[in-house]
Amino acid sequence: MNVPTTTTPARRGLRPGLTREERARALGEKCATPGHCVLRAEDLEKSFHRGVPPFRHAIEVLKGASLMVCAGDLVGLVGENGSGKSTLMQIMVGLLGRDAGTVWHSGRLGYCPQIPMLWEKLSVDEHFELFTRAYGLQDGAGAKAADELLSELDFERYRAYRVEQLSGGTRQKLNLALALMHEPDVLLLDEPYAGFDWETYVHFWEMSERRREAGMGILIVSHLLTERERLDRVYELRDGRAVAG
Amino acid sequence: MSAFAAVSGRFVSEHLRAPLTLVLLIWIPVFFVFIFASVVGEFAKALGGTLAGQAATAISAGWATAFLCGVLAFFQVSSSRAADRRLAIAGLGPGRVAVSRIMAALAIGITVSAAAFITLWLKSGIGHPLHAAVAILSFAIIYIGLGALIGALVKDALSGSLLVLLLFSVDAFTNPQMTSSSLSWTPTRAASNLLIAAGGQMGSPTADWVEMAAVSIGALGVALTAFWLAARARS
Q: Is B3 an 8 Å CB contact of chain A?
């Protein structure tokens, strides 16, 4: 299912009823297999306004950033602190509005924010229950997905704990699990391993690679040079633009 | 169980699990009705108002409800903003998050109103229990609207809670019964008139009922808008 979340294909001259290949050609897609683009951002611009008049000023963060993720791609997004990586992610998932540009994605989208966005007083199980509703999963499917992720990330024993009782690393596991529970077609991860111990960190990459092999398109904000060998492609955010590395 | 009921049920749990909330739920009505009411008459006298005795006791139950509901609605928005927005983009949407939040706020408001009503009944008895219950609930709804609105506009928890307190103080201390130099209109004016009349076993004019209903419906609209603003994408 193609979901034009924030762009209007009509504006790009795309008529309804195009085949995957025709759409891919029209969009100038560069995926190895035409029609396998799962996320595309074009010419994104974003400024933040700070201060009060007459001292109000704009901080330009994104100045035409564009990137693309194909099905089965593990793509990195790197850049200095404050370069706009999280801003770009938030615009692509719809948490933040944009000044210009378009975003398009196909199928289900999963998002793991850099800082866990959780309810302190709710338990791990209650989080899964709420996101089961939000993703529109059947109760049984949601419970099965939760069981599998709790086991895969090895935090089953904390399922009755409230978030306020969890360590930073376990909160991050929950943060990641919530992004994965509906098996998205495209997954955006904003430094998802902050707080993980080494064993969990290694396990995280194994999980990501398994999902890539299953056809999931993954975009991950990464800082470490050693991770680049794990990635199919890398974009660097420089001067507000995403440059393919 | 509908998605709304399930989600709002979790939102209610989230707030009632804070130990301080439960303590405040008991102590704020007790403080207002048993302690504050006994001195508020002196305040009113000093300010040129007429509030005293049974009327002071009755209106204190309303103010206890207003204060608690305003603060709780503010923190419903303030402490859950990020997680609510994540839930909205996951597929629930800001509208459904807002409706779930308002259902949760109303459930908490009814609980707070019940605590205040029981406290008032224990202290002095209530001439018209049904009128009093409706008036106390109106205090709750009006302050859910105000608290949620402040939560949507003010991100800092300290600034926001102080703003709720300031608004409450202005509303309470400019009430027509409280001071001779009162504002011609305050959000809880009609609810105050109804509550005082109900406490003294008197009926109320239709105009007060209409005004209270209109303000309460408006407050619900404000609350819904505020919860929606907090859950939608930022610009």
A: yes
H or E element in which residue A29 lies? none
B-chain residue closest to A48, CA distance: B235
Answer yes or no: is pLDDT of A11 > 50: no
Q: Which residues contact A36 (CB under 8 A, 6 or more apart)?
A: A24, A29, A70, A71, A72
Candidates A130, A171, A175, A180: best to mutate against B (most CBs of B within 10 A) is A130
Return mean pLDDT, chain B: 88
Residue A128 has pLDDT above 90, yes or no: yes
Which ipTM score applies to this complex? 0.85
Q: Would residue A94 be called left, alpha or beta, if left means φ above 0 and alpha means ψ between -120 and 50 degrees?
A: left
Helix B93-124 / helix B206-231 crossing angle, nearest 10 deg: 140
Contacts of B2 in chain A (CB under 8 A): none
Q: How many domains does chain B have?
A: 1
Helix, strand, or coil (residue A244): strand
What mean pLDDT comes out for the span A91-99?
Answer: 94
- How many C-beta neighbours within 10 Å does residue A240 have? 20
Please report, to the nearest 10 degrees, the dihedral formed by the alpha carbons of residues B229, B171, B121, B214 taken in order: -60
Structural domain boundaries, residue B154: 3-231
- pTM for the structure as a whole: 0.86
Ordered DSSP codes for A211-238:
HHHTT-EEEEE---GGGGGG-SEEEEEE
Q: Rounded mean pLDDT of A238-244?
A: 83
